[in-house]
Amino acid sequence: MRVTILGAGAVGGWLAAGLARAGLDNPGLASLGILARGASLAALRAQGLVFLHGERREAFPVEATDDPAALAGADILLLGLKSHDLPAALPLIQRLRGPGTLVVAVQNGIPWWFLQGFGGPAEGLTLASVDPGGALAAAMPVDRVLGAVAHVGATVAAPGVIRLMQQDRLLLGDPSGRHPGPLARLVGALAAGGIPAAAVPDIRREVWLKLWGNSNMNPLSALCRADMRAMLDDAGIRGLVMAMMAEMAALGDRIGLPLAGPEDPGGERAIADRIAVTRRLGAFRTSMLQDLEAGRPLESGPLVGALVELAGRLGQPVPTLAGIHGLVRLLAAAPG
């Protein structure tokens, strides 16, 4: 199985290390190519992909190039880019794809393919917060996609150097149900390389469940400049988290993705359980807070704006989500 990675940053680099490790032990299992440029390309060529975890240091020789033609037509094109970077990257993505290439996007928020074949009142809606003009959905329809949800903490320590803090699991699924073979091969290759990967029957539900936490903790952390422990220790911030989660739960009920069962009306128990899980992560700094501190664009559109937009299209009130999204938009636009 040939895999090309576009966006070998924190999460993409974590997966690249796993695939490279699997390929060393079994060259027939996975071959890997990374599209890179600048300092990252120079580092990958000079020292390989360096992977740090605790006291452990590994360096994997990888095929790295800035020429898309050299990596075009792989079996899997793995996108490690941020959601808001995908529309601008579409021409490059198209140059990397071949007729048989499946696209795997490891991203936060609602992905462009999420509502294709979804059913219910949200069937086929295109969200400008995620996919302006519907270009991504037109170029990469759901039947050419494998979905992915990563529960991992990793950073780019230096060009070509990935540091893993913690890894929980990588969930992969086939939203169209047309590619069980490639899905199984990809999961097998990742697992062989030490990635806790698993196939799930309903990848949309896993995307929605992760977003239930990301849609509140990420923007609030950017507004507060605080880690998750500090935010949840503050009664006022905790109340905002609970209000945002309740609004998203009601939106999930509306579109057919309930987050709580009939025995938990209003989802109060489910919200409390999710907050308890978040507390166990400790003083974790969210990706949006890290982006803010590094001066990078904030991923507020796919994480919060998409929910506000979807709710607006369906006439579902989400005043807290809308207010927080407005504050983050103003924060992102502020000078400096």
From TrEMBL:
<keyword id="KW-0560">Oxidoreductase</keyword>
<dbReference type="InterPro" id="IPR013752">
    <property type="entry name" value="KPA_reductase"/>
</dbReference>
<dbReference type="InterPro" id="IPR013328">
    <property type="entry name" value="6PGD_dom2"/>
</dbReference>
<comment type="pathway">
    <text>Cofactor biosynthesis; (R)-pantothenate biosynthesis; (R)-pantoate from 3-methyl-2-oxobutanoate: step 2/2.</text>
</comment>
<keyword id="KW-0566">Pantothenate biosynthesis</keyword>
<dbReference type="InterPro" id="IPR051402">
    <property type="entry name" value="KPR-Related"/>
</dbReference>
<protein>
    <recommendedName>
        <fullName>2-dehydropantoate 2-reductase</fullName>
        <ecNumber>1.1.1.169</ecNumber>
    </recommendedName>
</protein>
<dbReference type="GO" id="GO:0008677">
    <property type="term" value="F:2-dehydropantoate 2-reductase activity"/>
</dbReference>
<feature type="domain" description="Ketopantoate reductase C-terminal">
    <location>
        <begin position="202"/>
        <end position="330"/>
    </location>
</feature>
<feature type="domain" description="Ketopantoate reductase N-terminal">
    <location>
        <begin position="3"/>
        <end position="110"/>
    </location>
</feature>
<dbReference type="InterPro" id="IPR013332">
    <property type="entry name" value="KPR_N"/>
</dbReference>
<dbReference type="InterPro" id="IPR008927">
    <property type="entry name" value="6-PGluconate_DH-like_C_sf"/>
</dbReference>
<dbReference type="Pfam" id="PF02558">
    <property type="entry name" value="ApbA"/>
</dbReference>
<dbReference type="InterPro" id="IPR036291">
    <property type="entry name" value="NAD(P)-bd_dom_sf"/>
</dbReference>
<dbReference type="Pfam" id="PF08546">
    <property type="entry name" value="ApbA_C"/>
</dbReference>
